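Example record used in the benchmark description.
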Amino acid sequence: MFNVNHIESMEELDLHITVIKKNEDELTEEEKQLVEQAKEATYRSYAPYSNFRVGAAAALDNGVTVTGNNQENSAYPSGLCAERTTLFYANARYPEAKVKCLCIAARDTSGQFTKRPIAPCGACRQVMSETEDRGGVDMKIILYGTDGIYIIRSVKDLLPVSFDSSFL
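Model output (structure tokens):
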């Protein structure tokens, strides 16, 4: 039996993240545009099973913004989240571009935008981490909710202890 209270040599890592909560009127013009594009992308989502529609918009360093949304499938594991459709498309279309910012918005089953910002799932966080590492610059994350918008400076704050290519 493993006794968690009896560890001979232990080092505790104290990880801190910063999440800034803003109202829509506190966003920069570029952030507002990205939020609008992510919100608009929710209307093109294919979510006939869950009716939970997610959109994402990525601002690239070449001045282009790409969007994506969740795509469901009756064989549930075959669907894909908005974050991954957006980032995979960005890399497929603009492989040299770095993602400066990724914005995520969602509408609940009633069709209303979520009050609280939704957070990316673990698989999306991993893809976001690799995208950030590949680009070599922090990718700002904007999580939209009608009661407040979260601004996160880097994917490292969403996935602080991540698996990356250095382990391979």
